[in-house]
Amino acid sequence: DLYRKVFVFRKDPSDAYVVLRARLEQPLHNFTVCLRSYTDLSRPHSLFSYATKAQDNEILLFKPKPEEYRFYVGGKFVTFRVPESRRDWEHVCASWESATGIAEFWLNGKPWPRKGLQRGYTVGATAAILLGQEQDSFGGGFDLYNSFSGELTDVYLWDTGLSPDKMRAAFLSLRLPPALLAWKSLSYEVKGDVVVKPRLRE
């Protein structure tokens, strides 16, 4: 249980990462991924990387610069332009549904304009899921200058699109529905220089 704890990625650039284990029985036609990050990086960095053997950017949350997030599904991406952070925690949720190809992006509990992405696509179930690196091959192929440095917490992955109420609940750390990956019952393995520490502030 990582309640009120964080992963601290101490080095910049870094070869460190965290492997997450999810029980995925079948491919995903819908999903929501949420996490909270705290960093002073201005270079590109990866937050959440879900790769299959067929597609290294099956699901990817990537920040190419301080005022932009990229959300990938099946190797294609949409861009969400955001205000440059005031050096504070940023909570992001990204959801996608195959039937409509609608991609939703929420920052700090507020929705951005929805975009279209990979309508009719299916996300593969046999996945390597990593925090802190961007996979260019299944479970590897890292570019150290895309690595994350800073603090990560509150990581979740659901096999549904969350309702607006639940998106806001995720931002506020309230009760959430059962998830494939849940911060309060996370199965993970640290690779390299990552330390689990209590959160310094709420």
UniProtKB/TrEMBL annotation:
Family: Belongs to the pentraxin family.
GO BP terms: acute-phase response; innate immune response
Cofactor: Ca(2+)
UniProt GO cellular component terms: extracellular space
UniProt keyword terms in alphabetical order: Acute phase, Calcium, Disulfide bond, Metal-binding, Secreted, Signal
Every Pentraxin (PTX) domain range: 3-202
Pfam family, one: Pentaxin
Compartments reported by the entry: Secreted
Coiled-coil annotated residue ranges, if any: none
Cofactor mode of binding and number, as noted: Binds 2 calcium ions per subunit.
Subunit structure: Homopentamer. Pentaxin (or pentraxin) have a discoid arrangement of 5 non-covalently bound subunits.
Protein name: Pentraxin family member
Disulfide bridge map: C34-C93
Superkingdom of source: Eukaryota
Molecular function GO labels: complement component C1q complex binding; metal ion binding
